[in-house]
Specification:
The structure is a single chain. This protein is of the alpha+beta class and 161 residues long. It has 7 helices and 4 strands; from the N terminus they run ααβααβαββαα. It has a 4-stranded mixed beta sheet, sandwiched between helices. Strand 3 and strand 4 form a beta hairpin. It is globular. The N and C termini lie far apart (36 Å).
């Protein structure tokens, strides 16, 4: 009985931690559309020609190394790749996998050819903050995000991270 209570307490804690990854109360914890990310997350779109691309896996590993910083800044790892359900995702950093039709729309919107690797960091308003042909170190992401007025306001809120 005690083990069961401990198990449920751990589940509640995990849900609470995951819920804190939301920028606003109306945000979905794990958005399933590109539109649902708007105003809630800073999507890190990682365009890859294949789900087994080493650069895609490298970007996921880099984010995991600084998972707390990524959660504090509402960075959402979003692989854009054929068969992204097989793509490597971070273990600790927030992430989502969009339906293939959504990925195709995102690829067209940002003019990224199917065979190209690219990393785009978007602000919560959808504007492109960074475009790179290589995986990006989280310290670079943090520096870019921390200079924005929205992030400055986030840091001033009581209990802010």
């Amino acid at each position: 009985m005690r083990r069961l209570a401990l198990f449920f307490a751990m589940i509640v804690l995990a849900v609470q931690i995951r819920a804190r990854a939301q920028a606003n109360a109306h945000c979905q914890v794990v958005p399933r559309t590109f539109t649902a990310m708007h105003g809630c997350f800073r999507p890190l779109l990682v365009f890859s020609p294949a789900p087994v691309d080493a650069r895609l896996h490298r970007q996921a590993a880099l984010l995991d190394a600084d998972a707390d910083d990524m959660m504090d800044r509402f960075v959402l790892f979003t692989p854009i790749s054929p068969d992204s359900r097989r793509a490597g995702t971070p273990v600790d950093s927030p992430w989502t996998v969009l339906p293939q039709a959504q990925m195709d729309e995102v690829r067209a919107r940002f003019h990224i050819p199917a065979g190209q690797f690219a990393v785009l960091l978007l602000d919560e308003d959808g504007s492109v903050m960074l475009r790179s042909a290589n995986p990006v170190n989280p310290s670079r992401l943090n520096a870019l995000i921390d200079r924005t007025p929205l992030r400055q306001a986030e840091m001033r809120r009581p209990g802010a991270n």
